[in-house]
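Help wanted!
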Amino acid sequence: QGHLVESGGGLVKPGGSLRLSCAASGFTFSDYFMIWIRQAPGRGLEWVSYISSNSGNLYNADSVKGRFTISRDNAKNSLYLQMNSLRAEDTAVYYCARESQYAFDIWGQGTLVSVSS
Amino acid sequence: QSALTQPASVSGSPGQSITISCTGTSTDIGGYNYVSWYQQLPGKAPKLIIYYVSRRPSGLSNRFSGSKSGNTASLTISGLQAEDEADYYCTSYRGGAPLWVFGGGTKLTVL
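Answered by r_m:
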């Protein structure tokens, strides 16, 4: 069915950087578009960044444009999110998910990013 | 404020049916049949329960059903069970910035 595992979260000061990773297994990673979605504490879901299967198309939410960069390595079955200039409002659990038929059918367990001085 | 509007909470007794609405605009729900719904149990990642407005992933209970009318999508859960108590989120693809919009989530309480 497929499995996703995120890593790389942690506590970082405002203005700092983090790189999240998402390891995929159990499906042909290179066939699918992938997405990062976040959830602030006690809040709803927000899509962050989206990448096509061959990295030809990248999209970022306005809230992270110019600060976050999504990428992938199909040879390593891995998805990444480079987060720079972090702000307190970026504090959230970050999920990677597989997009299939305009829905997100496989999710990772999430990794917590806390931005605080 | 979320782009799609959901009620903050709904409740029902075991065995009853409940419906959660999700209201958008003609540029998202009204313009595409790409509405999906997710169930999030406490402390867990969301789980896909409905896609393409009304399709269920393989193996999912037929107690869950989806529909759409105009700019409003709906999720119906019939034969409520205690394990259905969770947060439910709708989302819609919208083809332009932003690519997807989410609802704010609805907390379902099984009385």
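OP: Thanks! One thing I noticed: The mean pLDDT of chain A is 96.
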